[in-house]
Design goal:
With 134 residues, the chain is an alpha+beta fold. The protein contains two helices and four strands; from the N terminus they run βαββαβ. The radius of gyration is 38 Å and the shape is elongated. It starts with a strand and ends in a 63-residue tail after the last strand.
């Protein structure tokens, strides 16, 4: 079902009856909005509901008649203009990490060890060009 806009003519003379009408209509599942003009006694119900059942239920409270029923068209969505993404600054990599970066890279034997090392494990000095002998 599609959403419908229904206009009902009600004879509401008391605030107590008006509250009962609002409570009754709002309990229906599928009702998205309710509006009522107190001067003319017209109630507008929008939603995916069975309107004759609403009228039948409201006739137990007050005099109710169905005036019009219209199909509500969903609002047209305008395509939003695409915002240009800001260019990311280039990342500066001082020492790209590859397998053969450092000539004295430490590879230890895992044959004598209980725990197997991960494949990408390596020991790197903070400054690779420093002298180890003083």
């Amino acid at each position: 079902m599609t959403a419908q806009k229904s206009v009902l003519q009600l004879s509401v003379h008391e605030e107590r009856i008006r509250k009962k009408v609002w409570a009754t209509v709002s309990k229906f599942s599928g009702v998205t909005s309710i509006a009522m003009d107190d001067k003319t006694g017209k109630m507008t119900v929008v939603g995916v509901v069975d309107v004759p059942i609403i009228v039948k239920r409201l006739r137990k409270i007050c005099n109710a008649e169905l005036v019009t029923v219209e199909v509500v068209k969903p609002p047209e969505k305008k395509p939003e203009p695409e915002k240009p993404t800001p260019a990311k600054p280039a990342e500066i990599v001082a020492f790209p990490v590859t397998q053969f970066n450092y000539p004295y890279q430490y590879h230890y034997s895992s044959a004598n060890s209980y725990y197997q090392p991960c494949e990408n494990y390596r020991v790197a000095a903070e400054e690779p060009n420093t002298c180890a002998m003083m």
